[in-house]
Amino acid sequence: MNIIIAGDGEVGVYLAKSLSELDYNITVVDPHADMLSRLENETDLMTVAGSATSPQVLKDAGVGVCDLFLAVLHDESVNLMSCILAKKLKAKKTVARITNVELLSPKMRDMMRDLGVDEMVCPERIAAKEITNLLNNSAAAEFFDFSGGLLTMYVIRLEAGSPVVDHAVKDLAETYKDLQVKVVALLRGGETIIPHGDTVFHAGDMAYIIGRANQVETINHVAGKKAVDIKRVMIAGGGRVGRYAADTLQERLKITLIEENRQRAEALSAELADTLIINGDATNIELLKEEGLQDVDAFIGVTNSSETNVLTCLHAKRLGVKRTIALVDNTGFITISQDIGIDTIINRKLITASYIARFIVKGDAVSSKWLSGTNAEVLELVVGKWAPATRKPIGQLEIPHGATVGGIIRGRETLLPSREMQLKHGDKVVIFSLPSAMTAMVKLFD
Question: Which stretches does DSSP call E strand in 302-395?
Answer without folding.
Answer: 323-327, 344-346, 364-370, 377-382
